[in-house]
Amino acid sequence: MRNALIIGGGLAGTAAAIDLACAGHASLLLERESAPHDKICGEFLSGEAVAALVALGVDPVAHGAVPITRVRINAGRRHVAAQLPFPALSLTRRVLDEALLARAARAGVAVQRGVSVRGLSGSIAHTSAGDISAPTVMLASGKHDIRGHARPPGPDQIGFKMYLRSASLSRALSGTVAVTFFDGGYAGLQPVEGGRLNLCLLVDGAQYRELGDWSALWARLAREPGLAALADAEQLLPRPLAISRVPYGHLARAATDGQWRLGDQAAVIPSFCGDGMGIALTSGRLAAEMAAAGASADDFQPALFARTRRPVRLAMAALALARHPAGRWAAMAGLGAVPGALALLARATRVADPHALAPA
Question: Is the pTM of this model over 0.90?
Answer without folding.
Answer: yes
